């Protein structure tokens, strides 16, 4: 999974960078094949519509697999890896928890505001900023040329002055901190870890041929006064081959979670083109379902059972001959 250079990179040094500079960057921390396999686990073409599973949703130009702990063993293994846990263990002074996670695919365009990730939520809304320590882990799952992660160096030391703001305006950052902006175009597999109080964003872009894949997760030192802080972690029990008391705590077993999954999605958050594709698919499915229902209504039950038997036999002969 991880490149041996990343595994062997001194964890104390990583934590030191995080405490002093507020961020740590490592190019190609994940092996290329591992990233390819992870992306093969996720079908970004299939959107959830009355599907009895976790899966992909769309919010304007970004497709999200929020519940990747339930849908991608490779993502689960990164999020619960020894290296990540060691960084957290050394960085935090008290109990820490995974508060959100997602894999997403960005295409065509985006304009994310400058922001920090120390958010408290009430229902779907950001309600306030908090002071708990926290770390953001962001892995590039494709080569990132444009739309790179950007951060304002040292902003973790002053962002608390703007706790009353939801975002910081582009002009405010450009006018006051343009020399402190660090832009991080990097190869597939690279990782950025940063203090959640750091002002950051994905660089705005417009390019109809560009696609970026990302794995993001956040770990906060959730104090007892913030019970309920975080999104729910839906985990596929099949993946839990490494359960320890440490992991049980990190994944928040038995810990209340009040926030809805990010992003908030519905038919209304789909793009017209996706919506149109869905309509075409639905039309086809409607005809299929109608004709099936008509056959079921018209034919006697015994005949239907015989048809099912014959179909099953044909299929099983075919699969034996393969
Ligand atoms: O995708 C990125 O580069 C940044 C994402 C981010 O900051 C967020 O989702 O809060
Ligand atoms: Fe963020």
Broad shape: globular
Count of discrete domains = 2
Q: Supply the CATH superfamily name of the largest domain.
A: q2cbj1_9rhob like domain
CATH architecture label of the largest domain: Sandwich
Number of strands: 14
Structural class category: alpha+beta
Summarize the amount of helix as a percent range.
Answer: 25-40%
List keywords for this structure.
322 residues; alpha+beta; 7-stranded antiparallel beta sheet; 3-stranded antiparallel beta sheet; 10 helices; 33% helix; binds fe (ii) ion; 2-oxoglutarate-dependent dioxygenase activity; Phytanoyl-CoA dioxygenase; Phytyl_CoA_dOase-like
Provide a compact summary of the structure.
The protein is of the alpha+beta class and about 325 residues long. The protein folds into two domains: about 270 residues, Jelly Rolls (Sandwich), CATH 2.60.120.620; about 50 residues.
Present the secondary structure layout.
Blueprint (H helix, E strand, L loop, with lengths): L3 H5 L2 H10 L2 E4 L5 H9 L16 E3 L2 E4 L2 H4 L1 H7 L2 H10 L5 E14 L8 E4 L2 E5 L4 E7 L3 E9 L17 H8 L3 E6 L4 E5 L4 E3 L2 E16 L7 E4 L13 H6 L6 E3 L12 H27 L2 H21 L1
Parallel strand pairs: 13-14
Antiparallel strand pairs: 1-10, 2-3, 3-4, 4-12, 5-6, 7-10, 7-12, 8-9, 8-11
This protein binds 2-oxoglutaric acid and fe (ii) ion.
The site of 2-oxoglutaric acid has 6 residues, from strand 11 and strand 12.
Pfam family, one: PhyH
Protein name: Phytanoyl-CoA dioxygenase
InterPro entries: Phytyl_CoA_dOase-like (IPR008775)
